[in-house]
Amino acid sequence: MIVALVLAVAGQAQASDNLVLIPDPPLLLALIVLFALMVPPVNQLVFKPIFRVLDEREERIDGTRARAAQLERETDDVLTRYESQVASVRAEAEQDRRSLLEVARGDAAGETGSARAEAEREIDRARQEVATALESARASLRGQSQELARQAAASVLGRPL
């Protein structure tokens, strides 16, 4: 119906060399009326769906951005917790390492002390053995020296003593 009205109002197009600056008033009025009649259906059928789609797209973009920001915050929180736990575990491991090192040093000192005491006992026993052997050797040499002295004296004197 609207198309028939447009075809009825519009005249036959003619090519001419004359440029018309002032439009035909009935034609201009018909075009304005036609435009006014076309605005509500075009608005209903074209613009409202386009604007609705654009609004929904904007809402989805905003929602996605909000979700991305939320995920970034959650990621930062998780990363902060992770770094905190890693630092805590490292500190605990360092403390355990230090305590084990102290225990090992104490054990080494105890082992060294007991080995030193054992070595000193061995040295004392060896000294006693050497002293005993020296006394025995001295006593043996005294007896032998007296015998040799008699033999030397008997040999020098030429007679037995």
**DSSP summary, beta strand count:** 0
Biggest sheet record: none
Assembly state (oligomeric) = single chain
**Stretches with pLDDT under 50, minimum 5 residues:** none
Strand content: under 5%
Shape: rod-shaped
- Helix-strand string: HH
Assign the structural class, choosing from mainly alpha, mainly beta, alpha/beta, alpha+beta, or little secondary structure. Answer: mainly alpha
Number of helices, counting only DSSP H or I runs of 4 residues or more: 2
- Average pLDDT works out at 87
Helicity, in percent?
Answer: over 70%
Structure description:
The protein has 2 helices and no strands. Helix 1 crosses helix 2 (25-157). The chain is rod-shaped and about 185 Å long. The longest helix has 133 residues, at 25-157. Helix content is 88%, strand content 0%. It starts with a helix and ends with a helix. It is mainly α. It has helices at residues 2-9, 25-157.
Topology at a glance:
Blueprint: H1 2-9, H2 25-157
Which short descriptors sum up this protein?
161 residues, mainly alpha
Give a brief outline of the structure.
The chain has 161 residues and is an all-alpha fold. Helix content is 88%, strand content 0%.
